[in-house]
Amino acid sequence: MNSVIEEIYQSGAVKDNKGNEYTLHSGVDRLEGDFLHRLIDSDDSIRKTLEIGCAYGLSSLHICSALKGREGAEHKIVDPFQHKQWHGIGTENLKRAECDFFELIEKPSELALPALVDSEAGTFDMVFIDGWHTFDHTLVDLFYANRLIKVGGYIVIDDCLWASVAKAVSYVERYPAYELHEQSASTQSYKRSIADFIRTVLPAQVAGYILPRYLYDKFYVRTLYSSMVALKKVKEDERNWDWYQSF
Ligand SMILES: C[S@@+](CC[C@H](N)C(=O)[O-])C[C@H]1O[C@@H](n2cnc3c(N)ncnc32)[C@H](O)[C@@H]1O
């Protein structure tokens, strides 16, 4: 693991460029970071990546340390609060890790992503989503990520144990152009085992029909995925204008 990442996990703290220290209170954990790293290692066609939500830069560090050394490596980061709220520490950490192939777009994803679609549709190999976690916002990020990635590319979504995020992911997973590629291991493996058991006795299709909507949305949807999920775009998205599937 990259030494900057290791130092952050071990100390549980981050520093800005003036040496002020802040407690690490947000960011992907080691297992999720390994998941991102392994996904990029497993496919050497991944060169151009996009990340939504940088905070103190842990996911950026994992992605960029895996990409480092690849010809044409390019990482775009969308985060409106990188300086206002995170003291520029995410991008500072990337510089400390000698990753100089990133670009920060300091705008909310709902504004930055449509602009990117205008000029760079279908050019990204991977989009990582870890921004604002409401259902509608996640769906907006997924909508544009679908436009931004190539066929063969991946959309990786963090915090899929959140009902709001899992619900949005479960809709996009139904698109014929996508396959569930892989899910991260979980630090809370006992919770995962309970979730796996619940899904074995009550598969999602059945649960969707028999559980009251409130129970399904509030509880069952949290059993669908592990905390980080990779969807793979396996073909062009050619859904009809009236395509819809229950989710
Ligand atoms: C959970 S944190 C991201 C953690 C980061 N991925 C990591 O592993 O260190 C969520 C991030 O989303 C950003 N964010 C909030 N609203 C956003 C928006 N509208 N568009 C993009 N990012 C947003 C926040 O500034 C914050 O950095």
3D structure, described in words:
- Helices cover 41% and strands 19% of the residues.
- The strands form two sheets. The protein has a seven-stranded mixed sheet with strand order 5-4-3-6-7-9-8, sandwiched between helices. It has a two-stranded antiparallel ribbon with strand order 1-2.
- The chain has a single domain (7-187, 227-233), classed as 3-Layer(aba) Sandwich (Rossmann fold).
- The chain is built from ten helices and nine strands.
- It has 247 residues and is an alpha/beta fold.
- S-adenosylmethionine binds next to helix 3 and helix 5.
Number of domains: 1
In this entry the ligands are: S-adenosylmethionine
Specify the CATH class: Alpha Beta
Strand content: 15-25%
Q: In total, how many beta strands?
A: 9
The structural class is alpha/beta
CATH architecture: 3-Layer(aba) Sandwich
* Helix-strand sequence: HEEHEHEHEHEHEHEHHHE
User: Taking all residues together, what is the mean pLDDT?
Assistant: 95
Low-confidence residue ranges = none
Strand order of the largest sheet: 5-4-3-6-7-9-8
Sheet bearing the most strands, described? Answer: 7 strands, mixed
What is the fourth-level CATH superfamily?
Vaccinia Virus protein VP39
What distance lies between the first and last C-alpha atoms, to the nearest angstrom? 38 Å
What percent of residues adopt helix (DSSP H or I)?
Answer: 40-55%
Q: What radius of gyration results from the CA coordinates?
A: 18 Å
- Please report the number of helical segments: 10
Shape: globular
What would the CATH topology be? Rossmann fold
